[in-house]
Amino acid sequence: MLNSSLHPFFLRCHELAATSAELGNPPVGAVLIRDGLIIAEGLELARSSGDVTRHAEIEAIRAAVHILKTSDLSDCELITTHEPCVMCAYAIRHYRIRRVVYELAVPTVGGVSSKFPVLSDPTFWEARPVPEIHLGF
Predict the structure, then answer these.
(1) Interatomic CA distance for residues 94 and 97, integer angstroms
(2) Which overall architecture, per CATH, does domain 6-135 show?
(3) Helix axes of 56-68 and 7-22: crossing angle, nearest 10 degrees
(4) Residue limits of the CMP/dCMP-type deaminase domain (predicted)?
(5) What is the mean pLDDT of residues 57-64?
(6) Angstrom distance (rounded) from CA 13 to CA 29
(7) Helices 86-94 & 56-68, crossing angle to 10 degrees?
(8) DSSP-assigned beta bridge partners for residue 33
(9) How far, in Å, CA of 2 to CA of 56, rounded?
(10) What angle do CA 79, 84, 90 make, to 5 degrees?
(11) How far apart are CA 88 and CA 111, in angstroms?
(12) Which pTM does this prediction carry?
């Protein structure tokens, strides 16, 4: 079990997930934190927007890159309601996010538990570090 200091971040993820569901999307929410503060957040918008890339994790990453004006997010942590999919896992590795914490595994398309462990396999992309990964909090 991780530190209970993550509890407020998971609460925010659940609020974002509820908003996502109200908009007709899967209930997924994500936040990026740096120095103990939320710097960006995202909710799942793929279904309602018609844009398959609008996953909560990628929405949060896009916002962080815009806000911080850098593509190096190595001092950030991603907290999300669901295991990042393979697409999101690639983005997490690309932006060098140092830690990922998620509540629910998604073995069909997850970047850790599926047959395509993009997030957790160090041989997948040796130029990009594997983040610290935690299931649950």
Answers:
(1) 8
(2) 3-Layer(aba) Sandwich (3.40)
(3) 110
(4) 4-114
(5) 99
(6) 4
(7) 20
(8) 38, 77
(9) 22
(10) 110
(11) 8
(12) 0.94
Tokens of 31: 């936040």
- What are the catalytic residues? 57
- Domain borders along the chain are 6-135
The C-alpha atoms of residue 95 and residue 99 are separated, in whole angstroms, by 11
- Tokens found for residue 48: 């309602």
Closest CA to 55 of 66, 64, 46, 47: 46
Distance CA 16, CA 14 (A): 5
Number of H helices, E strands in the chain: 4, 5
Q: What are 18-42's pLDDT values in tens digits?
A: 999 999 999 999 999 999 999 999 9
Contact residues for 72 (Cβ-Cβ < 8 A; gap 6+): 95, 96
Question: Can you give the pLDDT at residue 1?
Answer: 43
Taking residue 8's Cβ as centre, other Cβ atoms within 10 Å add up to 14
The reported pLDDT for the residue numbered 24 is: 98
82: left (phi over 0), alpha (psi -120 to 50) or beta: beta
